[in-house]
Task: inverse folding
């Protein structure tokens, strides 16, 4: 078995929704008792519709969101119990690639300056410069591009800078938060292949959040399906796609476009026959292993 890098243990994150008088009207359960393990060197894909809690879960792992209950362990250290000054040691090993590369980059800094910024906290200027140049070349930049500003690059090139910033400090874990959704379709595959190459070369572990199921299938070793704050299905990628068990997973896969019209009609007919009842998560409280390493949330 691969070694566990991150253990998410029964975490909850609730947001109160208030009316115009400041009274709590309802509670949004962004994360509702989620437990999950992420193993060293793997890519865990996290999928679900908007509002399912994917990004809140990812940000909680990096301590960018405060959880209400539970614990998050990184290499057996409970990050949620540490004081802020003690967290910095561990958080250096964790980075994030943002959805929108333009808003995440300082427009006043050049490409080389953006990558140098985190390095100058750890190395002298000469060594930091060498490392920054090396990683920019690794993500496909030439020397004449080093001194250009973010506005002079395409979306795909800006995301490459974001990736370079994330990996240059040699982290072990990277949260990829919708890293390709703002990019042209023609560029998405290039960025995904770059992430795969960097993972193999640097031994990285990814939590890959995306709406694009085809890209999630391409990059992920395992997939976790999230719905209304809960993980409803978890398993090896091909097992999830070929033998989905939870009704919500089936709905997600039904929404994937199929190029062949005949096959598309057959898939829709099969899906409609399978999805005859509404999904009631309140009744689904048992985590069942339906096949090796393939788990689904079911009614007791």
Result:
């Amino acid at each position: 078995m691969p070694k566990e890098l991150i253990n998410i243990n029964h975490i909850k994150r609730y947001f109160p929704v208030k009316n115009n008088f400041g009274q709590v009207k309802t509670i949004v359960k962004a994360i509702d008792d989620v437990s999950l393990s992420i193993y060293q060197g793997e890519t865990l894909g996290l999928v679900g519709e908007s509002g399912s809690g994917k990004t809140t879960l990812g940000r909680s792992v990096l301590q960018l969101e405060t959880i209400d209950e539970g614990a998050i362990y990184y290499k057996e250290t409970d990050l949620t119990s540490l004081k802020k000054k003690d967290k910095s040691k561990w958080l250096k090993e964790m980075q994030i690639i943002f959805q929108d590369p333009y808003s995440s980059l300082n427009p006043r800094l050049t490409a080389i300056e953006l990558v140098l910024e985190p390095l100058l906290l750890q190395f002298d200027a000469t060594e930091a410069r060498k490392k920054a140049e090396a990683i920019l070349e690794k993500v496909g930049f030439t020397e004449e591009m080093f001194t250009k500003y973010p506005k002079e690059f395409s979306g795909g090139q800006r995301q490459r800078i974001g990736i370079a910033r994330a990996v240059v400090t040699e982290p072990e874990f990277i949260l990829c938060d919708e890293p390709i959704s703002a990019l042209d379709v023609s560029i998405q595959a290039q960025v995904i292949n770059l992430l795969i190459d960097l993972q193999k070369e640097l031994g990285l572990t990814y939590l890959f959040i995306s709406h694009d199921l085809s890209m999630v299938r391409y990059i992920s070793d395992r997939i976790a399906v999230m719905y209304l704050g809960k993980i409803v299905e978890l398993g090896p990628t091909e097992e999830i796609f070929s033998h989905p068990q939870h009704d919500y997973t089936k709905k997600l896969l039904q929404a994937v476009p199929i190029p062949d019209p005949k096959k598309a009609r057959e898939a829709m007919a099969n899906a409609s026959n399978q999805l005859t009842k509404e999904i009631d998560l309140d009744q689904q409280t048992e985590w069942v292993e339906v096949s090796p390493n393939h788990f689904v949330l079911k009614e007791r």
Notes: The CA atoms of residues 97 and 176 lie 5 Å apart. The chain is about 35% helix and 30% strand. The chain has a mean pLDDT of 89.
